[in-house]
Amino acid sequence: MPLDLSGALQRLRDGRSTSLELMRESLAAARSDACQQVFVREFFDTALASAEAADLLRRSGLPGSPLQGLAISVKDLFDVAGQPTTGGSASLLDAPIAAADAACVARLRQAGAAFIGHSNLSEFAFSGVGINPHHGTPLNPVTRALDGKTRIPGGSTSGGAVSVACGAAWAALGSDTGGSIRIPAALQGLVGFKNTARLTPNEGCMPLSTSLDTSCAVTRSVRDAALLHELLSGQVLPPAGRPLARWRLGVVRELMQDALEPAVARAFERALQRLRAAGAQIEELSLAPLQELPALQAQGGLPAAESWAWHRQRLLTREAAYDPRVALRIKRGATISAADYIDLLQARRRWIAAMQAALQGVDTLLSPTVPMTAPELAPLLTSDDAFFATNTLLLRNTSVVNLLDGCALSLPCHEAGELPVGLMLWNSALRDADLLAIAAQIEPLVSPSIGGH
Predict the structure, then answer these.
(1) Active-site residue, from 19, 73, 122, 180
(2) Collapsing DSSP states into helix, strand and coil, what is residue 380?
(3) Which end of the chain, N or C, is surrounded by fewer C-beta atoms within 10 Å?
(4) CA count, 13 A, side-chain hemisphere, 274
(5) Which of 122, 156, 399, 428 is catalytic?
(6) How does residue 240 score in pLDDT terms, banded at 50, 70 and 90?
(7) Does residue 180 have an active-site annotation?
(8) Domains of the chain
(9) 211 is known as an active-site residue
(10) Has residue 453 got a pLDDT over 60?
(11) Domain named Amidase: which ranges (predicted)?
(12) Does the annotation mark 383 as catalytic?
């Protein structure tokens, strides 16, 4: 894995690199074959100018910004001042220019980020696969380097994750409504952190499901995830306290380990063995509330109801410009009445309370992020049945955390030379600091490589 963001920042502080040198390397990667179809629109010239400004500040002896002019990609859901925001859709190609940055974009810009472009995504962020029929689909560069096959990147933050995996960006600002940060991270051997939704602002970000949407980032390491979370949330994480052996870790067998691909099952069990060998206390847990998930997700659940509210007028006149698979999922919301929606919100609150009661005393749960390695792209382009079956499996484990209003982090747990597999650490709301602290201790035990460490 390439150098991570924290390592690059240390090089800048030590005077071993300049922001402009690192930006030129990022842009060379962004123009490479591995990064094709990653950007809906490019901000390369302004990114170079931001890097030059960061170098000027350091030469002048002024305090450097936290991100020091390094390259960050932005999912094409977030407003960037002076640019349109189109959600990866042909139906919004006439979108107006944004007058101001989205709140998370503004926080990263204030921290010195150099934005290199709006990254590609599943249209309107409504898929865990990462296919986009309007702008093309970014290909998974990590798996292609391993076996030469054309595999999916994972979605919906497909372009953002590829921008990090191929070295074009040090981190990718994206969103996670049902797994859209963690799925592409898992399939590409990256780190994806979905924080408790209320900790980061969604203003200026195109919604999918207002109850579930979370603004967060894909990075190359856990320490980078912690840095981005601090910048996006405006919070300072406390120093790690307890050693790994003093955290209570749980493994859930129901649902989260059903129908695992053999490679995923092997990697997950190997990770658990390594953690136990390092002194981790891991216990098997039963979570009866997981049995209620099918009822909560019937009729498309909250994403269908809330996306229909946002898209229903546009679909009347522009449905032909939508990805038909996305339009189909949005239109499921048309059958959900106001009473059904209110009942669903109340049922979710009861379910969260039951889950929180079941998780009392547990510091983090461990699960495979997704039950498969990255599947090949071609069958999913031509078969709706294959696409929707794959999409459902990709979202199965990750979407539990969004419904829980919780936090989760996916980190790689495969061996070098194997197709990427993600290990998901997760818990209920506002356990973010503990989860990041635990992940930092687990990462060197299970990850194939850690950039810059």
Answers:
(1) 180
(2) helix
(3) C
(4) 18
(5) 156
(6) confident
(7) yes
(8) 5-295+332-446 (3.90.1300.10)
(9) no
(10) no
(11) 31-436
(12) no
